[in-house]
Amino acid sequence: MTLIENRPDMWRALLPRPAPDGHKYDRGHAVIFAAGELTGATRLAAAACSRIGAGLVTVIAPQKADFFRAVLPPDIMVREHLTGDVRRVTAVLAGPGGSRAGGDLPGPCFRVFDAGALPGPGAYGHLDGRCVLTPHDAEFERAFPDQEGSRVERAQQAARLCGAVVVLKGSETVIAAPDGRTIVNCHASPWLAKAGTGDVLAGMITGLLAQCDPLDCPHIADMVAAAVWMHGEAGARIGPGLVASDLEGELRDILGGLMG
């Protein structure tokens, strides 16, 4: 198994860049399923998903569509249901705030599962190599209760077991791919230990993957690693006083530095 420390030189050249003659769908369409009660999680994830570059972000909110239309940034679309006119979806996110995916997804796409959408023990049959799971330690224990060893070893075992990329979040986040490739992110900040920061990370991962081709993307783990590193960089830049909603505002400068 290959164990790698997360560094920008691994994935900087792979970051999605818009074509001079491109349009929004060329930059991907991300769909985020809204939380019914913990609505702040949806707002954090959607804003981060858009800021990191997804060409279009649609929030599916069957319960509180008018509320989300009022509070989300104006570039984010809100629909009550996932219907046939929600087109060209390249990535979906479920789980922040306890949300669950609903409706038939239009074609193959990346799927990111966080918090409430993480699978239960043994319920991995719907997962594949285009899926990313983003548990913290307690969520990981619930989803994969039988794994043993170090955090790295347990994440690797879980990725092999479920066939998806597993992102075990923490002060040293472990990104484990099903083929055994494992990236450890030490570029973090203790100030990120705040409610909502994981929702921001889930939105960032979804937004980066949305800009890739679901049918031809051998660098899924690298895109995840890029989002994790930028999340840590944003936390380090803000430092004391950080709240989750601060992170999205740092992404413009961070992306500019990486892609300039």
List the defining traits of the structure above.
260 residues; alpha/beta; UDP-N-acetylmuramoyl-L-alanine:D-glutamate ligase; ten-stranded mixed beta sheet
Question: Strands, helices and their partners?
Answer:
Blueprint: E1 3-5, H1 8-11, E2 29-33, H2 39-51, E3 56-60, H3 65-71, E4 77-79, E5 91-94, E6 110-113, E7 131-133, H4 137-143, H5 151-162, E8 165-168, E9 173-176, E10 182-185, H6 197-210, H7 220-238, H8 244-259
Parallel strand pairs: 1-10, 2-3, 2-5, 3-4, 5-6, 6-7, 7-8
Antiparallel strand pairs: 8-9, 9-10
Helix pairs in contact: 2-6, 2-8, 6-7, 6-8, 7-8
Short structural description:
This protein has a single domain, classed as Ribokinase (UDP-N-acetylmuramoyl-L-alanine:D-glutamate ligase), CATH 3.40.1190.20.
Summarize the structure in words.
With 260 residues, the chain is α/β, with parallel strands linked by helices. The chain has one domain: 3-Layer(aba) Sandwich (UDP-N-acetylmuramoyl-L-alanine:D-glutamate ligase), CATH 3.40.1190.20. The protein is 35% helix and 15% strand. The chain has helices at residues 8-11, 39-51, 65-71, 137-143, 151-162, 197-210, 220-238, 244-259; strands at residues 3-5, 29-33, 56-60, 77-79, 91-94, 110-113, 131-133, 165-168, 173-176, 182-185. Helix 2 links the parallel strand 2 (29-33) and strand 3. Helix 2 (39-51) packs across helix 6. The longest helix is centred in the C-terminal third of the chain and has 19 residues, at 220-238.
Stretches where pLDDT is under 50 for at least 5 consecutive residues are none
Mean pLDDT: 94
Q: Would you identify the CATH architecture?
A: 3-Layer(aba) Sandwich
Q: Can you tell me the CATH class?
A: Alpha Beta
CATH topology: UDP-N-acetylmuramoyl-L-alanine:D-glutamate ligase
Strand order of the largest sheet: 1-10-9-8-7-6-5-2-3-4
As a percent range, the share of helical residues equals 25-40%
What share of the residues does DSSP label as strand, in percent?
15-25%
